[in-house]
Amino acid sequence: MVEEANPVMASAPIAPYNSSPLGNSSSPNASRESLKMEPLADVAMLPGEERVIDKDIIYICPFNAAVKGKVFITNYRLYFKNTDSEMPVTLDVPLGVISRVEKMGGASSRGENSYGLEITCKDMRNLRFALKQEGHSRRDIFEIIFKYAFPLSHGMQLFAFLSQEKYEENGWNVYEAMEEYRRQGVPNSEWRVTFINKNYELCDTYPTILVVPYKATDEDLKRVATFRSRCRIPVLSWFHKENHAVITRCSQPLVGMSGKRNKDDERYLDLIREANGTTKLTIYDARPNVNAVANKATGGGYEGDDAYQNAELVFLDIHNIHVMRESLKKLKDIVYPNVEESHWLSSLESTHWLEHIKLVLSGAIQVADKVSSGSSVVVHCSDGWDRTAQLTSLSMLMLDSYYRTLRGFQVLLEKEWIGFGHKFASRIGHGDKNHADQDRSPIFVQFIDCVWQMTKQFPTAFEFNERLLVVILDHLYSCRFGTFLYNCESARESNNVRAKTVSLWSSVNSDTSLYINPFYTPESSRVLYPVASMRHLELWVTYYIRWNPRIQHQQQSPVEQRYKELLVLRDQYLKKLEELQLSDSTPSSTHLTNSSTPNAATPNQHITHLQTPF
């Protein structure tokens, strides 16, 4: 068994430098470098990607013996190819995926392959390379990987700003806030659009366009902002066209130890309740009760019954970013490099990963059910950019079939995660060497896992497939696109991300056939309620354990493969039918048409029969 290149990240065959199917790099430096280095015969270089160093090295493959080969480092990726085996062994790792680079062993280390490098990755794998011990042979490659994997720590740009990829479609146009709010049915007599944040003066982590209760003035909003953490006031995320109930999101109130109150905040939440005549506004606090109480010590807190008499407070018991980080770390320990077979179920349970997935899904179900029954809700955690985003986006996915389409899902991510300021830069650590930073956490990975769980329970409800989810997570780390860079909209704007980088959706929407679920059946009014019990949740094996070669060979579902084959067959029959109809309609074949009329129905009948199962 060998570890092969990830089929998603290494989907293109490796082509000679400057002859990439994606475009050409005309950098003179690149040309000079390529003269010094042997041609990289089978790597598809991206436009803007440049070779930095090649080196003979030994890859210590965890699924096989040590493999001799050559590693190629560019300003975007680490690529390894073996030279001493009939079986190809390749690695294609975007440098953005690297979390940590360490030296392994020393000049006096004994034992075979004890001197080299150990690389920890953000995508559930580690890489180990061995080099010869004489002459500090690892110094140059260590320094180059460290520099290019963490460009921001070295005063350099992320690769997204160097990329020269071109696509016909501009993915930055996928989401227009006003267009999306109009689709939902706002503004209306209950909700209005405000531009009070157009210069990010009200809240620097919110988008410029906000939807608020019609009766709330901009002065009201300013007063409410003083009582909400980070000034993240309650604003509309989703509007139910039939019953006019809404999902609103915000951060915790600044109650503190003394139990402070704010009449403007209390009145504002009442305006949200009154907008559709909800009897009691439900406030979903994502945190465990004990954590919410503890937050009072740092000036935060929650909405007390005495102050918010027309509201009901529900704690959802979802743990914080630190708990989630440790949970995923434990999961990685039991699945990489080898799966813990002997006590698999107890080992998986000890990570608590699926338990956390269950709690997030369960919370979102409660939100969706409350809104579906006609009651408006407020959702928050501490600052309103982690657990809050998980709950609002998942409940919207359950309630609104538009978000279950390929384009709609992109809109959902742009709106609830990117627009409303999930701290991608802090949570992922793009280009930053501080791997132990306590702000790192797999909150977005956890959300995508929840989406995957829903696609497993409702296989015909989503237009997109698993491949899209994996590609999104791969480029969450890769730094090839600008989509997930920085912490909020104001930071992206000041760094001119839309003009200087390419959107991930430009790539995805240039070939949508790769991401379409063949089983998709549109159902516009259907609300999805997944079963959030441990018996119905699964570990996402094809993501978390995909580097194991045994899993790679199981990734293509035979049912899906057969279905795709039948779709191709159907298209062939339809094309044949069109050709027959076209030839029948030409004047020169009038008598031919007449003579063959009795048989003309045969292809039609055959087509009808073929289409029935679909």
UniProtKB/TrEMBL annotation:
<dbReference type="GO" id="GO:0048311">
    <property type="term" value="P:mitochondrion distribution"/>
</dbReference>
<keyword id="KW-0963">Cytoplasm</keyword>
<comment type="similarity">
    <text>Belongs to the protein-tyrosine phosphatase family. Non-receptor class myotubularin subfamily.</text>
</comment>
<dbReference type="InterPro" id="IPR016130">
    <property type="entry name" value="Tyr_Pase_AS"/>
</dbReference>
<dbReference type="GO" id="GO:0004721">
    <property type="term" value="F:phosphoprotein phosphatase activity"/>
</dbReference>
<feature type="binding site">
    <location>
        <begin position="320"/>
        <end position="321"/>
    </location>
    <ligand>
        <name>substrate</name>
    </ligand>
</feature>
<protein>
    <recommendedName>
        <fullName>Myotubularin</fullName>
        <ecNumber>3.1.3.95</ecNumber>
    </recommendedName>
</protein>
<keyword id="KW-1003">Cell membrane</keyword>
<feature type="active site" description="Phosphocysteine intermediate">
    <location>
        <position position="381"/>
    </location>
</feature>
<dbReference type="GO" id="GO:0005770">
    <property type="term" value="C:late endosome"/>
</dbReference>
<dbReference type="InterPro" id="IPR010569">
    <property type="entry name" value="Myotubularin-like_Pase_dom"/>
</dbReference>
<dbReference type="InterPro" id="IPR030564">
    <property type="entry name" value="Myotubularin"/>
</dbReference>
<dbReference type="InterPro" id="IPR004182">
    <property type="entry name" value="GRAM"/>
</dbReference>
<dbReference type="GO" id="GO:0052629">
    <property type="term" value="F:phosphatidylinositol-3,5-bisphosphate 3-phosphatase activity"/>
</dbReference>
<dbReference type="GO" id="GO:0001726">
    <property type="term" value="C:ruffle"/>
</dbReference>
<dbReference type="InterPro" id="IPR003595">
    <property type="entry name" value="Tyr_Pase_cat"/>
</dbReference>
<keyword id="KW-0904">Protein phosphatase</keyword>
<keyword id="KW-0966">Cell projection</keyword>
<dbReference type="GO" id="GO:0005886">
    <property type="term" value="C:plasma membrane"/>
</dbReference>
<dbReference type="GO" id="GO:1902902">
    <property type="term" value="P:negative regulation of autophagosome assembly"/>
</dbReference>
<keyword id="KW-0967">Endosome</keyword>
<dbReference type="GO" id="GO:0030017">
    <property type="term" value="C:sarcomere"/>
</dbReference>
<dbReference type="InterPro" id="IPR000387">
    <property type="entry name" value="Tyr_Pase_dom"/>
</dbReference>
<dbReference type="Pfam" id="PF02893">
    <property type="entry name" value="GRAM"/>
</dbReference>
<feature type="domain" description="Myotubularin phosphatase">
    <location>
        <begin position="171"/>
        <end position="544"/>
    </location>
</feature>
<dbReference type="GO" id="GO:0030175">
    <property type="term" value="C:filopodium"/>
</dbReference>
<dbReference type="Pfam" id="PF06602">
    <property type="entry name" value="Myotub-related"/>
</dbReference>
<keyword id="KW-0378">Hydrolase</keyword>
<dbReference type="GO" id="GO:0004438">
    <property type="term" value="F:phosphatidylinositol-3-phosphate phosphatase activity"/>
</dbReference>
<dbReference type="InterPro" id="IPR011993">
    <property type="entry name" value="PH-like_dom_sf"/>
</dbReference>
<keyword id="KW-0472">Membrane</keyword>
<keyword id="KW-0443">Lipid metabolism</keyword>
<dbReference type="GO" id="GO:0046856">
    <property type="term" value="P:phosphatidylinositol dephosphorylation"/>
</dbReference>
<feature type="binding site">
    <location>
        <begin position="381"/>
        <end position="387"/>
    </location>
    <ligand>
        <name>substrate</name>
    </ligand>
</feature>
<feature type="domain" description="Tyrosine specific protein phosphatases">
    <location>
        <begin position="351"/>
        <end position="397"/>
    </location>
</feature>
<dbReference type="GO" id="GO:0046716">
    <property type="term" value="P:muscle cell cellular homeostasis"/>
</dbReference>
<dbReference type="InterPro" id="IPR029021">
    <property type="entry name" value="Prot-tyrosine_phosphatase-like"/>
</dbReference>
<feature type="region of interest" description="Disordered">
    <location>
        <begin position="584"/>
        <end position="614"/>
    </location>
</feature>
